[in-house]
């Protein structure tokens, strides 16, 4: 008996589809990823078929049941989630289904990864004060960068944010925020971050539409360099952060905000 979805899976793997990119193409699956993803997706398709449910009509309750059924360590569960989450992003774009049953609510919590420190509310408030120029002048661009981290955005999401990703929704500013697992999520930005963006925009360099936070020549920021440099330089101005500033990481600031609730600005939330 043919298992629904397997033909589509073989097509997806054969074409080398991976995480969606901004230009509508996809980053190719590399190394052992296709093998692992293919095994995980095939296992899901057989499991959901045995349950008498079409893979194109499954919802998050079925996805949760399968993830729990498979069990395993957090990293294994995260791999399975990423495999199905990415596959269904493609399936939605191909009109095979309307919704992604493996939505972000089901992403395993890896907040306690070794080497990623947690910053308490006092440290996060001190960082906000430093960004606000309490101890030394801070440019509107650099202040916006820090507020983005305090809102829970990681460097990859910050540097991929474009001006046309922002839309007003009543009193809320919404943004299409890039996700590490692939695709984007529509999120409501915390009001303090939205106000910081508005303050920065008159000083922004570069074409519109284009990158929201730009280099001094109007280009897109390097996610691996600029956020970290700006974070450390800004934090070093605050007496409470002077000693730790050289070791601060943007990912740790975003992680502390999103998973530990220590940000004084509030965080971006799903719409």
TrEMBL record:
Keywords: DNA recombination, DNA-binding. It comes from the Bacteria. Pfam families: Phage_int_SAM_1. Gene3D superfamilies: 1.10.150.130, Intergrase catalytic core. Residues 1-92 form the Core-binding (CB) domain. This is Core-binding (CB) domain-containing protein. It comes from Streptomyces stramineus. The lineage of its organism: Bacteria, Bacillati, Actinomycetota, Actinomycetes, Kitasatosporales.
């Amino acid at each position: 008996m043919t298992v629904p979805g397997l033909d589509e899976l073989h097509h997806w793997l054969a074409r080398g589809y991976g995480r969606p990119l901004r230009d509508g193409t996809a980053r190719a699956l590399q190394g052992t990823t296709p093998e692992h993803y293919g095994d995980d997706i095939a296992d899901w398709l057989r499991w959901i078929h045995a349950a008498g449910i079409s893979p194109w009509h499954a919802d998050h309750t079925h996805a949760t049941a399968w993830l729990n059924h498979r069990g395993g360590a957090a990293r294994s569960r995260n791999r399975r989630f990423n495999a199905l989450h990415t596959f269904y992003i493609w399936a939605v774009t191909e009109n095979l289904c309307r919704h992604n049953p493996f939505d972000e609510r089901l992403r395993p919590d890896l907040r306690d990864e070794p080497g990623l420190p947690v910053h308490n509310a006092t440290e996060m408030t001190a960082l906000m004060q430093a960004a606000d120029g309490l101890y030394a002048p801070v440019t509107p661009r650099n202040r916006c960068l820090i507020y983005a981290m305090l809102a829970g955005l990681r460097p990859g999401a910050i540097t991929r944010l474009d001006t046309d990703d922002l839309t007003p929704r009543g009193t809320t500013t919404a943004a299409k925020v890039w996700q590490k697992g692939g695709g984007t999520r529509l999120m409501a930005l915390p009001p303090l971050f939205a106000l910081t963006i508005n303050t920065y925009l008159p000083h922004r360099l570069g074409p519109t539409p284009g990158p929201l936070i730009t280099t001094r020549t109007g280009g897109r920021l390097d996610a691996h360099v600029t956020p970290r440099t700006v974070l450390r330089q800004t934090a070093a101005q605050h007496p409470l952060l002077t000693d730790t500033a050289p070791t601060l990481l943007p990912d740790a600031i975003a992680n502390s905000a999103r998973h530990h609730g220590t940000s004084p600005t509030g965080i971006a939330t799903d719409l």
